[in-house]
Specification:
Elements lengths: L13 H6 L8 E5 L5 H8 L3 E6 L2 H14 L3 E5 L12 E7 L7 H5 L2 E12 L21 H5 L4 E11 L5 E10 L2
Parallel strand pairs: 1-2, 1-4, 2-3, 4-5
Antiparallel strand pairs: 5-7, 6-7
Length: 181
């Protein structure tokens, strides 16, 4: 018996799934550079109150459609994170997946309320060797770099791994969960 191929369905990151128990009902969540909203949708499905930011209006429109189809209420914000940000408020959790802007790390950390956390994951420089994803040093972490970038937050746990994305692709990522004291 042959098995059908594993599809490339959009699903939350393994890192998100491992840490999603921290996103209880009512938790205010900010998902930065959310793309088509895979983490926004997953957080909202857990009962979180989500604001999701991305500069790509077409991707946000697709995310909005998916949210409506699932009966999820998410505040979709079109904004370029390379420009001044709109006032967003404070949050119990900030999510950052597959986005890296070293110069804006203080701005990324700023909206986290005391006791809140940053859940972040992005590509390592080893990703280049895997034939897909970012190739610029500006968008790839060096080994050991992520824990330093999230200071002054306190790292609860982190990892640097090579993991399967689907049946055909692997990714090299660094992940961190860090708390604002």
């Amino acid at each position: 018996m042959t098995m059908p191929p594993v599809s490339r369905t959009t699903r939350p990151s393994t890192w998100f799934l491992w840490n999603s128990h921290r996103l209880g009902p009512g938790t205010r969540v900010l998902d930065l550079a959310c793309g088509e909203g895979r983490h926004s949708l997953a957080a909202a499905a857990l009962g979180a109150r989500v604001s999701a930011v991305d500069r790509d209006g077409a991707r946000l429109a697709a995310a909005r459609e998916r949210a409506e189809a699932q009966g999820l209420d998410i505040d979709w914000v079109t904004a370029d994170l390379d420009q001044p940000w709109p006032e967003l408020g404070t949050f119990g959790a900030v999510l950052v997946f597959n986005y890296l802007d070293r110069a804006r790390m203080p701005r990324i950390i700023e909206p986290i309320e005391p006791g809140g956390f940053l859940m972040m994951e992005t590509f390592l420089s080893a990703q280049r060797e895997l034939g897909w994803g970012p190739t610029s040093d500006d968008h790839l972490l060096r080994p050991g770099e992520l824990a330093r970038l999230v200071a002054p937050l306190e790292v609860v746990h982190g990892r640097e791994v090579l993991e399967a994305v689907d049946a055909e692709r692997w990714r090299a990522v660094a992940s961190v969960l860090a708390v604002k004291k």
